[in-house]
Amino acid sequence: MTAEEEDRSLAKGSKNAAGKESDTSGGNGSSDSADGHGDGNGNGNGKNKQSLPFLCLAALGIVYGDIGTSPIYALREAFYSHDGISVVPANIFGVLSLLFWSLIIVISIKYLAVVMRASNNGEGGIIALVALLNPWKTEKKSRRYILMLLGLFGAALLYGDGTITPAISVLSAIEGLEVATPAFKPYIVPITIAILIGLFLIQKRGTASVGSLFGPVMMTWFVVLGLLGINGIVQHPGVFAAINPLYAIHFFADNGLAGFLVLGTVFLVVTGGEALYADMGHFGLAPIRLAWFFLVLPALLLNYFGQGAMMLENADITQPFYQMAPDWALYPVVGIATLATVIASQAVISGVFSLTRQAVQLGQLPRLNIVQTSHESYGQVYIPFMNWILMVATIGLVLGFQSSSNLAAAYGVAVSMDMVITTILAFFVAYRWGWFPRVAGAIAAALLMVDLAFLGANLFKVPDGGWYPLLVAGVIFFIMGTWRRGRQLVGQQLQEDTEPLEEFIESLDELPMRIDGTAVFMTEATTKTPPMLLHHLRHNRVLHEQVILLTVNILDVPRVPAAERLKIDDLGHGVYRVQVYYGFMQASNVPVALRFAGEFGLDVDLDQTTFYVGRESLIPTSEVPGMMVWREHMFAFMSLNATRATSYYRIPPERVIELGIQIEI
What is the mean pLDDT of residues 151-180? Predict the structure, then answer.
């Protein structure tokens, strides 16, 4: 969709409140035509036209990739990555019981029944959850500020998961070739790397061209999981006795600390839980729930219990997932497993792109080049910088760990910590909304006990590789803090030499010359005169007849409807303050917003408009308090390499004049 088409779509939306018609779609998070996003229930315009079965099928391809590929390695790792856990019937029943109740408690109850009720106008995920607390401008050391930091650290943890998931998923699938013949062993890592390189190379094309295949492939995958499980269960139908939670209790009693540590690998069966919540806005709650209860959960349970039945029959099995398959089906199973893991990896990579965009929109990361890869689906974006960072990190993990068993030692620490944070934030959101605080507290306490048990078991993985996602999260979190603090310091310095805006406007009567056209100055919405405007007048001594002080505001909601896009104030003397509002899931497009201003009574001819943008040269110095000098240098480097405002806000470069200014921080 071009800017002109987007403008026309916006123009069909609501009029301003000054005696004009309002948008019939309502203002509760409803989507404008330009953005194509949904209402407060997470159902966009496009989704409203799609049937529930279609949405369930699409959810299979996007939401359940990570959790759906865990059967390849989860049960195997529960026995073969821990000393002292022998493959005997009591332990097999105990681990299966843990697997069963983990899926029920963490996925079915915690996420699908409880956490997904905390929706931010239909959107989910940890950033959306943090935004519900509206913490961005609270005082330091306040409860909401601490919760904001906690949530941002949780978001940072997902970056570590974003590199581990593709590595462990694809590697575990290709390792199935070893079951056919040991001759493949030397080629496992090279084949995995080749697949991963291909996966990252096609990211710039977006997922639109292959996305339609994700659902059918994953549906086939879950059917295969169920059939393989049935093939194993018929050999030992009594395996279903493991549903009894007493087997899990006896397992802990019999194995002590070793049994507790097994929780770290049992946790692998629920590592896709956060995806359910994060992708809620794409499909809505109903399709995700239906897909889980009618296909995904039964297929997973059948497969896990089938693997357990095989192990009850033959304790020497080392690859229970692949050894359930008949000899003639081994290569087809490896093939579809590879496709499923690539889809799971694609979903995680896309999730990292989406998370990065949200963090940039909310001012927690520097501006990055964000490419929209689909005109129909706003959620499909490509961020080149993040793509290549993820590729290098993922390939490095494959080369460093060499096998999915070794990677399993690094997997789970970040996700389990993230689940703890999600439970805490969800409780405070429920408390803020007045959702029966005592009941919410009791539910949160119960879920937190489960989350902390998983986290405690996963922390033992830190020396064996679990340090990696924590290191990644620490680096990302530190970058966020440095960027956020640096922007605060720059803002403070810019405001020091300014004068009250009201006084400045009154002084315009004495200005010797006003020229035709419109000047747009990007600025914060303050009572002070924008520094770039003063800088321009001091040097050029001339001003356009129409001056627009433009502020782009990113709100704590996923999307802002067209009816609420603009606020325009006439300050007199041809000066207007225009505030543009976007949600953190929307892209900012200044030219489209200015064209839309005509609907609000302010005509802007873009062909006669000049945009004035500041080009800040940052000078780190110890004389200005705020940050240590080495962090100031780090911030200056990030600022220098951030995407220019003209590109980020889609301002035509031929209409831009950059004004250089030096700022000591």
Answer: 82
How many alpha carbons lie under 13 Å from residue 78 in its C-beta half-sphere? 32
Residue 218: the pLDDT is 87
DSSP code string of 490-543: HHHHHHHT--BHHHHHHGGGG-S-EEEEEEEEE--SSSBPPHHHHHHHHHH--E
Burial profile 448-481: b = 16 or more Cβ within 10 angstroms, e = fewer: bebbeebbebbbbbeeebbebbbebbeebbebbb
Amino acid at 621: T
**pLDDT confidence band for 282 (50 / 70 / 90):** low
As a whole number of angstroms, the distance between CA 67 and CA 64 comes to 6
Contacts of 310-313 with C-beta under 8 Å, sequence gap 24+, read: 310/232, 310/235, 310/236, 311/75, 311/79, 311/87, 311/92, 312/89, 312/92, 312/236, 312/239, 313/235, 313/236
Q: Which residue has the tokens 């100055």?
A: 521
**Residue 403, Cβ neighbours under 10 Å: how many?**
16
User: Which of 39-48, 282-291, 412-421, 582-591 shows the lowest per-residue confidence on average (mean pLDDT)?
Assistant: 39-48
Q: What count of Cα atoms within 13 Å lies in the side-chain half-sphere of residue 325?
A: 21
Instruction: Give yes or no for a contact between 32 and 587, defined as CB atoms under 8 angstroms apart.
Output: no
Kindly report, residue by residue over 570-609, the tens digit of the pLDDT: 888 888 999 999 887 777 888 888 888 888 788 888 888 8
Instruction: Specify whether the CB–CB gap between 549 and 530 falls below 8 A.
Output: yes
Residues pairing with 582 in the sheet: 554
Q: What is the pLDDT of residue 4?
A: 41
Helix (H, G, I), strand (E, B) or coil at 262: coil
Q: Which of 323, 343, 467, 345 is nearest to 401 (CA)?
A: 467
Tell which wins on pLDDT, 14 or 421.
Answer: 421
Report how far apart, in Å, the C-alpha atoms of 327 and of each of 179, 181, 316, 330 are: 10, 12, 17, 5
| Residues 558, 555: Cα–Cα separation, whole Å | 8
Phi/psi for 150 (5° steps) reads: -60, -45
Residue 329: per-residue pLDDT: 84
pTM beyond 0.85: the answer is no
